[in-house]
């Protein structure tokens, strides 16, 4: 069972999402919140697997709430669900550690699938979001990656830890860390989040 927390400032939307999500037998809504502060508190008490997070909310917006949640509860997945298409919002969401960015006009079946994918350590982005990633990762000339590097990049994009990747590839964690450092430097990237986005833009996943 995948436990979901709904965070949105609009009550009717919270209720609509609840009914939509609970139609699927694999999903369960464990609670809801109307602002970012309540969302952080609920993550501590309800321990959801996935949070559906609005952006524009009073007291603490969704971007800041996501940043706090990812820092305090690293295993909880957060998907931004918003009307905001502005590139700056997309960039801020990715930098905050969000595991996905979807628009509220998404089909119900697609949202359910997205929740399941994120719970399975995948990242989900609306196709229109990818067009705005040039502000987050500048367009670069193609860089040749080795087969091993591409394989490792894919695992990172799936949300796997260095320890998990080391076990899969039969390498030490230290070796995995060194390879990741080299990939980041080669591609002029700052962290694993940027590397995951890079994997999407290069169609490695």
Automatic annotation (TrEMBL):
- Boundaries of every Response regulatory domain copy: 3-119
| InterPro entries, per the entry | CheY-like_superfamily (IPR011006), NreC/VraR/RcsB-like_REC (IPR058245), Sig_transdc_resp-reg_C-effctor (IPR016032), Sig_transdc_resp-reg_receiver (IPR001789), Tscrpt_reg_LuxR_C (IPR000792), WalR-like (IPR039420)
**Entry keyword annotation includes Transport:** no
CDD domains under this entry?
LuxR_C_like, REC_NarL-like
State the source organism's domain of life: Bacteria
User: Hey, what's the signal peptide range on this chain?
Assistant: none
Does the record bear Coiled coil in its keywords?
no
Sorted UniProt keywords: DNA-binding, Phosphoprotein, Transcription, Transcription regulation
- The chain positions of domain HTH luxR-type read 138-203
Matches recorded under Pfam families = GerE, Response_reg
Q: Sites of the modification 4-aspartylphosphate?
A: 54
Under the heading PANTHER family, the entry gives: TRANSCRIPTIONAL REGULATORY PROTEIN LNRK, TWO-COMPONENT RESPONSE REGULATOR
The protein, known as: Response regulator transcription factor
